[in-house]
Amino acid sequence: MKLALISDLHANRQALTAVLEHAAARGVQQHALLGDYLGYGGDPAWVLDRVMELVEEGAVAVMGNHDSAVARGALPGMREEAREVAEWTRSQLQPYQLAFVKQLPMTVERGEMLFVHANAYDPASYEYIQGRLEAIRSMHATKARYTFCGHMHEPMLFHLSGTGKAGEFTPQAGVEIPLLTNRQWLAIPGSCGQPRDGNPAACYAIFDSEQSVLSFQRVPYDADAAAASVRAAGLPARLADRLLAGE
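Above: the chain sequence. Below: its structure as tokens.
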């Protein structure tokens, strides 16, 4: 089965549309949505409805910190700009949409796969996996062979052997990476809706569970239209500029 790993959509309608079309053209059969459907972008209602449609079709969906901020209130430490966008987003959603967000789980396990927004060791803390140490801690916290998470807006891949030896890869778009079955793996596909590695193209990844092969993908999309949506919503102009710069 080919599984699309999509995270940090951030209410970016144009990016999500492009990613779903790109994945369908590559034979993707199912989707795993790794949180942060909301926040920063100008089309939260549309994006959330599309997420709900995918879940009805069998997709995995977990709670992100921006989703939690909209549905339950911001966590301590969330930046003021993000809080303001969360409040605006809440005003754009219907009761059925807020009810969907509130019931999202922190984690989902399917077979050898664990899906979580931030990390496996304390999902509700939303602590970032910024490098190898946090990745090892996360892999130690689960028996899952494959952990897929988001939160970091850059693509990352880590592995841990049975003897405790850890390593990491720098993902290259479109390059297939065999995930050896005698190791644990933690993959972060990057952000669909707000990449932050200097490349504005949307990020996602495809995992072939039968072949145990992962490939990271970059998808150009109409970032100008996404930025215009942010500005039209009256959200901070900096959020629109970030989309164009990939930061």
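The domain at 2-245 is CATH 3.60.21.10 (Purple Acid Phosphatase; chain A, domain 2).
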